[in-house]
């Protein structure tokens, strides 16, 4: 998993968010907001 700050705005006004890039065992990668990540039980 990698966490980056990314401008997710589609306008001239920036909107920065912390995004988590997660790679599953299959090798497929997806993104989500860092606040959505929870530890595995």
What is the topology?
Elements: E1 2-7, E2 16-23, E3 29-33
Protein model, in words:
The mean pLDDT is 91. A hairpin with a 5-residue loop joins strand 2 and strand 3. Strands 1-2-3 form a 3-stranded antiparallel sheet, with no helix packed on it. The chain is elongated. The relative contact order is 0.29. It has one domain (2-35). The protein is mainly β. The protein has strands at 2-7, 16-23, 29-33.
Helix count, DSSP H or I runs of 4 or more residues = 0
Give the structural class: mainly beta
Give the termini separation. 17 Å
Strand content: over 45%
The secondary-structure element order is EEE
Instruction: Going across the biggest sheet, name each strand in turn.
Output: 1-2-3
Shape: elongated
Mind summarizing the main beta sheet?
Answer: 3 strands, antiparallel
Give the tally of structural domains. Answer: 1
Summary of the model, kept short:
With 41 residues, the protein is an all-beta fold. It has strands at residues 2-7, 16-23, 29-33.
Give the tags.
41 residues; 3-stranded antiparallel beta sheet; 0% helix
């Amino acid at each position: 998993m990698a966490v980056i700050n990314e401008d997710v705005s589609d306008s001239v006004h920036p909107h920065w968010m912390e995004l988590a890039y997660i790679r599953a065992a299959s090798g497929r990668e997806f993104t989500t907001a860092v606040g959505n990540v929870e530890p595995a039980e």
